[in-house]
Amino acid sequence: MRRIPWLGLAMAAALAAPAAAQAPEPYDPDAALVEELVVTGREPGPAWWRVSDADTTVYVLGSPSLAPKRMQWDRAVFERRLSGANEVILPFQNVRVKFKGVVGATFNFMRLRSGAPFEETLSPAARARFAAVRERLGQPADHYKTRNPLAAGLILASDYRDHENLTTSDPTKLIKLLAERSRIPVRQKTYDLGPLMGQILKTSDAAGRACLDEVLEQAEAGPAGTLAAARAWAEGDVRGALAAERSYERCLAMVPGARAFDDRVKADQAAAIVQALKKPGHAVAVVQLRPLLSQGGVLDRLRAQGFTVKAPGEV
Which of 60, 76, 154, 255 is 20 to 30 Å from the Cα of 8, by its Cα? Predict the structure, then answer.
């Protein structure tokens, strides 16, 4: 069971968002938004956007990047749009390790590991702070055997989310289940994480420690902000939903190579929507809210390609 956080860390490296190499401090890679698309929904439940051409509409649900497990939300509009849909496009979040990449991923995993707990590398004050947080999360010092501060921060962030019953997979997991029950084709791309595993090792120590400090601040503050943003999402309050804490994403943005990977994921998501537009009728897509609405994000890319993009409530 002790290996599970390291598997999560490897997966996290593959899902990194855009980054500036050797960033001096965490930042939000999707901070700049297309403001005219940030509109409160008028229908019950979460907000929807529409992408269309002459004979097809893709209804796009912006999903929260983090939410309480088994969060309740009004599914009336979703179920109406699911009915008769050609397909459902889900966030491209699944990752895997190809067989040929297993050796390299294992080698990098071992390089991240250490014989001593991470907190032993810290000053007395920082050590006490780190220990206080991980004890509140119910984790022993040996759970964080690494000398890499970015790795320690990402593992701590994952432990915090687990402790507070927060997840990145809802409501996507439910939507996939409902689509499969309705026998509607589901599109969800997977990526090979092997080549990206070692990139954590190339992140500067200063950037890693800045990430760790932000994760500690989030854990000390608790989940109130995340829960408020999740409630706002469920009510169609897009601005409120966008206020969700993103320290995890900013930490991932520090991993070298993250910018290229994020660009690839957004391009693939936009391409999947374009492919769905080739079949008359309608389809449903789910994209995480900030990558959906950011400058250079999925909707921005589709507008640049000439497709009609409408915000919630727009006729």
Answer: 60
183/179 Cα distance (integer angstroms): 6
Which residues of 210-299 form beta strands (DSSP E)? Answer: 281-288
Please indicate, yes or no, if residue 285 is contained in any of the structural domains.
Answer: yes
**What's the one-letter identity of residue 49?**
W
Intra-chain end-to-end CA distance of the chain, in Å:
52
Residue with tokens 């400058």: 295
User: What was the pLDDT predicted at 4?
Assistant: 41
Quote the number of domains for the chain: 1
On whether residue 315 sits in a domain, the answer given is no
Tell me how far the alpha carbon of residue 183 is from its chain's centroid.
27
What is the pTM for the complete model shown?
0.85
Backbone angles phi, psi at 87, to 5 degrees: -165, 165
E strand intervals along the chain: 48-52, 56-63, 67-68, 88-89, 94-96, 166-167, 186-187, 190-192, 281-288, 308-310
Answer whether 13's CB lies under 8 Å from 200's CB.
yes
Is the distance from CB of 6 to CB of 269 less than 8 angstroms?
A: no
Mean pLDDT of 263-280: 96
* pLDDT score of 102 more than 50: no
Report pLDDT digits (tens) over 173-232: 999 999 999 999 999 988 776 666 677 778 888 888 988 999 999 999 999 999 999 999
Quote the domain boundaries for residue 218.
4-310
Q: Is 25 left (phi over 0), alpha (psi -120 to 50) or beta?
A: beta
